[in-house]
Amino acid sequence: xxxxxxxxxxxxxxxxxxxxxxxxxxxxxxxxxxxxxxxxxxxxxxxxxxxxxxxxxxxxxxxxxxxxxxxxxxxxxxxxxxxxxxxxxxxxxxxxxxxxxxxxxxxxxxx
Amino acid sequence: xxxxxxxxxxxxxxxxxxxxxxxxxxxxxxxxxxxxxxxxxxxxxxxxxxxxxxxxxxxxxxxxxxxxxxxxxxxxxxxxxxxxxxxxxxxxxxxxxxxxxxxxxxxxxxxxxxxxxxxxxxxxxxxxxxxxxxxxxxxxxxxxxxxxxxxxxxxxxxxxxxxxxxxxxxxxxxxxxxxxxxxxxxxxxxxxxxxxxxxxxxxxxxxxxxxxxxxxxxxxxxxxxxxxxxxxxxxxxxxxxxxxxxxxxxxxxxxxxxxxxxxxxxxxxxxxxxxxxxxxxxxxxxxxxxxxxxxxxxxxxxxxxxxxxxxxxxxxxxxxxxxxxxxxxxxxxxxxxxxxxxxxxxxxxxxxxxxxxxxxxxxxxxxxxxxxxxxxxxxxxxxxxxxxxxxxxxxxxxxxxxxxxxxxxxxxxxxxxxxxxxxxxxxxxxxxxxxxxxxxxxxxxxxxxxxxxxxxxxxxxxxxxxxxxxxxxxxxxxxxxxxxxxxxxxxxxxxxx
Amino acid sequence: xxxxxxxxxxxxxxxxxxxxxxxxxxxxxxxxxxxxxxxxxxxxxxxxxxxxxxxxxxxxxxxxxxxxxxxxxxxxxxxxxxxxxxxxxxxxxxxxxxxxxxxxxxxxxxxxxxxxxxxxxxxxxxxxxxxxxxxxxxxxxxxxxxxxxxxxxxxxxxxxxxxxxxxxxxxxxxxxxxxxxxxxxxxxxxxxxxxxxxxxxxxxxxxxxxxxxxxxxxxxxxxxxxxxxxxxxxxxxxxxxxxxxxxxxxxxxxxxxxxxxxxxxxxxxxxxxxxxxxxxxxxxxxxxxxxxxxxxxxxxxxxxxxxxxxxxxxxxxxxxxxxxxxxxxxxxxxxxxxxxxxxxxxxxxxxxxxxxxxxxxxxxxxxxxxxxxxxxxxxxxxxxxxxxxxxxxxxxxxxxxxxxxxxxxxxxxxxxxxxxxxxxxxxxxxxxxxxxxxxxxxxxxxxxxxxxxxxxxxxxxxxxxxxxxxxxxxxxxxxxxxxxxxxxxxxxxxxxxxxxxxxxxxxxxxxxxxxxxxxxxxxxxxxxxxxxxxxxxxxxxxxxxxxxxxxxxxxxxxxxxxxxxxxxxxxxxxxxxxxxxxxxxxxxxxxxxxxxxxxxxxx
Lengths: 111, 497, 603
What we know:
The complex is a heterotrimer.
Chain A: H1 2-19, H2 23-44, H3 67-98
Helix pairs in contact in A: 1-2, 2-3
Chain B: H1 6-21, H2 28-47, E1 53-56, E2 71-74, H3 76-99, H4 106-125, H5 129-147, H6 153-184, H7 189-199, H8 203-220, H9 229-235, H10 238-264, H11 271-293, H12 298-319, H13 322-353, H14 364-367, H15 369-382, H16 389-403, H17 407-432, H18 448-463, H19 470-473, H20 477-485, H21 489-495
Helix pairs in contact in B: 1-2, 1-4, 2-3, 2-4, 3-4, 3-10, 3-13, 3-18, 3-20, 4-5, 4-10, 5-6, 5-10, 6-8, 6-9, 7-21, 8-10, 9-10, 9-12, 10-12, 10-13, 11-12, 11-17, 12-13, 12-16, 12-17, 13-15, 13-16, 13-18, 13-20, 15-17, 15-18, 16-17
Chain C: H1 3-20, H2 26-50, E1 53-57, E2 60-65, H3 67-90, H4 97-116, H5 120-139, H6 146-174, E3 184-185, H7 189-206, H8 214-221, H9 224-250, E4 251-252, H10 255-277, H11 282-303, H12 306-337, H13 353-366, H14 373-390, H15 396-421, H16 442-460, H17 463-474, H18 486-510, H19 537-540, H20 543-553, H21 559-577, H22 582-602
Parallel strand pairs in C: 3-4
Antiparallel strand pairs in C: 1-2
Helix pairs in contact in C: 1-2, 1-4, 2-3, 2-4, 3-4, 3-9, 3-12, 3-16, 3-17, 4-5, 4-9, 5-6, 6-7, 6-8, 7-9, 8-9, 8-11, 9-11, 9-12, 10-11, 10-15, 11-12, 11-14, 11-15, 12-13, 12-14, 12-16, 13-15, 13-16, 14-15, 14-16, 15-18
């Protein structure tokens, strides 16, 4: 069920990328897609009734959630940040040159 | 400290130093970048003698046969790819010394360039799925920024489209990694391969395979995921175009795709996947060549031609035979040389004339003999004229297709090679032969550093055919073919059990 | 080092030297070039006398000389020397000479390699390389030659690509790439495709229809020695050599493929000669004949019987001789008058006697007039066709008529050529005899004279010299069946000439043209001269022919232009869907993904 919600979020992001005409909205759509995936990744590592994977006294035999996905998602979030930052800066520059945020009007390269 | 760590460490370190030292003196960025890339080139040459190397970062040994640390793996395929990346990388840096005088900010340019190299080397050497993703993103983000480096309207537009599609591709890949992890409980590629082999290839593996196919296919610009490439590659500065078309789409696209499909997921013997590769390769091959034929812009033509040539490579891999892999890998190597050379040629033309429109050129080889001659060699090589290198790889691919009983695909490959010849002769006719235009009476040949890069690449285009001589083939190409063809042995080799 | 290596290595090394010698030392470069040519020629003679010579590498027979290739090598060597000699004067003072000699020598080396190769891949390498040198050599003709060079290379290089396909199929069928131990029966689709692929490659090289269209363009723009060397002689030798090889050695011919060759041959003969009739340019006229004559060779090989094949191969040799002679005389004319436009030439016979005589001999040879060499080989081809009829081919009469009719039309068009260039009244642009010498210099007329001499020798002593030494050993099993009676052939030719005349008169009856008669004394205005150019223009207006000529002027029969038109349709469509809209591209990605999932995961 929770996986389906992730997919739903992904589809919402995809919708934004596909349908929205504004560069910034496209970027937001992309970010939503990315976060849906991060969520998905983190959820994969979840174990029923698990706790944080820190070994402390008295919890040696407890059920831990898988720590690996969490580490990976942290890395991926950083990468996602870089991507978003670059995209936004590109969008700003595009607005300076093209004078618009409308993706339909930014089509000098074709054919 | 093992030698192969340096492949990532040197460019990362140099990229870090560049902004710090770059402003100290004018010459420092050039020297630093060239030094870094030259040492990488030497390392890559040394790596050919290494044999299989598995390096465990931090010395984390496997626990109970299950690898826990980060692995760097140098096998036959990685050696070949490292050679390609670092040879072209060095020549492009060398070329940049003169070419990038046109732009204002050399230190940042070199920083991004070195990051890109670090990313590609990392993808090639990485032994676990997640690091492939991380290094791929490093290379990709650097390339997005480099495409926009000129910050003109077209360049920004191209970079934006490139990045949106590139990010979508990354999402697919990350999704694939997540599912693969949930299936196997490991990220180490060798371990994953072993677990999948034990579990058997079922629908989930197919699902993951398709995700990777789309993701890496987008990075490799395979039809129908190619649309960003003809915008992005021509917009970058010429040496970067050479890197993108010559190396990047292969390192983070084709290489990663093959590695994951054939070595990790073990789909190398699954006919439906191979057939899809055949079909997609053929589609790219045909569409790319047809579109290239209709271009007036020199660099855009070359970009479409890249799509077409990548199609050849994918087609060859899709045959799934040793000969097919040999042809594909050899073509990958050749394409790196001649396509980089052609982009450097286009850069030389832009440098001298400030113009990319073929219809406005003409007779340039009278004034630019080195550019003219080297572009001639590259064009003939890519069109598959004997005895240049491109001929041999094309020959092997077509023979392999016939051997695999894929006659229609062989025929299409032949037809496309005729079209390829046609559009490269068009380039030669419009740009380098014919009457010298009025406007270009005063132009000069480009500076010597640029010429040297082009000449070295031209010599490679002429001489790479020697890699097929049995003794040399056994050193460079055969180990790489072995890796792809016996994809299932990968786990065994790495884990040593 | 094997003797055979010299043939390939010498021209390549000497060619490289020519390329790097500084421009100031042009005399040395010329000497080197001619020396390289002579050395190669010398070795071809040595090898011819010592044949068979073979070279093994790792037990693989890579290079060899046998009876078929021996004399072709000899011819290549000879032509190489003659062309270099001729170029010394003809090309003097032109640009990019170093490159010119280099490419010329490389061509010689590549051609020797292609003929020597016993391994199909090796053959392919040399074969393709020759396409490249041809392209570069045409490019020497300057900016105007570039489109012709491009077209030539697309056709020739493109057919080389097909050759790869053919060779790959041969390899997959037999597991061998050695020409001497392959023998494939033409049954089933694959062998047929392989045969066709190789045949098309040979057609493109030799210039048989429908791959011929590069020859007229190339002849018009390329320097004349290049035309005389490559399309006129060398490419014929190579193309027909390959056709002979595949028809005799690699494949076992069947009836359908034989008939196909016959059709190609017959169509090529007639169509090309019809085009030649109406040309107004010396070079173009000659080039259409270079196409037309290929028809005879293909026809000869298509008969599939020894006499026909021998005739075809002998005709290839003869054609190389007289056609390069003709082009060289054309070059001499161009050298003296700076034009090859038939309208502007005339009355050169007195001024350039040697050129005139050699041209006349070659023209009579190509028209198949006894006792010159063209007659002998054509006659052998006729015999082959007759033999074919005896063996039960019902269509033999069509092939025979086509061949003879073509011969008559050839004669007719050369009457026009001789008249407009050498006879008739001088045009205002023809050089006046100001100096004593209007003949071209020694190094130029020498090659022409040698070739003309060969025309005579090969004709008069046909049996004793060329046939005995070159041809019969190459094609085993020839018997003349008592047909060796020139009388019959002469009769047939006369019939042919009458046929041609009927066509001519048919046109004339409809529209009689009048020309101002020559009165004497005064200089005749340009437009009143009888130039001979329009001799056959009336056939242009003959009913259905009119339509065909019109269409061919629009390049409707040009495989290159038609191919380009179709390809560009696709290109335009594809360009249109690349709209530059990011959402569109994203939709492609999603569609692709969905389709891939559907195929791979569902199915």
